[in-house]
Amino acid sequence: MDAFLVARKLFGNDDDSNDKKVCPAPDESGPTIVPLFGDMYFHTFAMILAGACGVVSLLITLFACSQHAFHYSNPVQQRQVIRVLFLIPYVSFFSFLIVWLESAGPYLEESLDFGCAFALAAFLLLLCDYVMAQPDGFDALFGEGALKRGQYTPDSPPWLKRTWYSVLQYIPSAAIIWLATIISNAVGTYCATSNSPHFAHIWITVFKLIVTIIAIMAVLRFEKRMKSKFAEQRVMLKFFGFKGIIGLNVLQVTIINLLVSSDTVKPTSHLSYENIVSALPSLILACEMPIFAVLLLFAFPVGPYKNRKPSAGPFKAVVDALNYTDILSAFFRGPMRLVREQQKHLDRADSIALIPSGPPQYEEAMTYQERRY
């Protein structure tokens, strides 16, 4: 009878219940680590390779950014382009840190999404300006006849508000995810080896999945809605050129973790458990950064901006790109004031005045746009 009750987990299962609240310790046993080449261990080799790839990625990115900075003829668009390009050295830097400080890897991994959140917001701003550059761009964003009727109120169509707040939420959400991961790892409640609801890992993972999907889908819906305005912009190449970085990293980390958890991949005489689960995914990502840097170099060419007189010097271009107060202020002012005022704040004399003292005539606005492009 007792055996029956135990089998039904009515009695005698206290140990099983307690086990669910204890983080399973990873099997870090393995052979003694020996040098990979001569006196060089894998950790040293990985640091050198990640650092070298980071330097190459940085040089390519600096070349791309300098092209836009020295031909800074369209500040609103090029400011966002430089911000997106900044994601390459950002990811390279943190990938190198994770390889170098393997034990700190769990505390640094979520930094990648935080950087991507700002790049995604800058990318949406860039898409908005692509639309506004069209003769009917204002009407496309704010409704048919909006420019002619002089609708310069802070209100905007509900779909546009949903799009912008869906993307903006990714910034604080990524910060919360990073902070929650750091705290839960520090106090021992994260437990990456378990999906039990007793640990933070599963909840952080689910939250991260939800907020990421919301942000990405918002951009994709915006691109689909305004597809006719992006005929010459190769928007999807631009989008996947930087968003693919994080997606590929998630895929690589998932595959490696599955292989390790299933004992398909085990520690060897050259690779410790920490080398495999922490350093190896970041090393692979660091090696991919030069490829993405070249891809973004072609996705965001400087050619369209070379035939116009620069409105500011390269130093101003870098300062504008590093000044994220415009994006952060959208949380308080509203995203549509940001879309309208971004051109006003950057003093684009050759652009349509988005917040004039009074509504312009439609024909005058078209003249501005034709002169600009």
UniProtKB/TrEMBL annotation:
Where is it predominantly found? membrane
Q: Which Pfam families match?
A: Solute_trans_a
Choose one Gene Ontology CC annotation of this protein and give it: membrane
InterPro entries, alphabetized: Ostalpha/TMEM184C
Q: Which domain of life is it from?
A: Eukaryota
Indicate the transmembrane segments per the record. Answer: 40-60, 81-100, 112-132, 167-187, 199-220, 240-260, 280-300
Print the keywords alphabetically.
Membrane, Transmembrane, Transmembrane helix
- The keyword DNA-binding appears for this protein: no
Q: Where in the cell is it found?
A: Membrane
Membrane topology per the record? Multi-pass membrane protein
The name this protein goes by in its record: Organic solute transporter Ostalpha-domain-containing protein
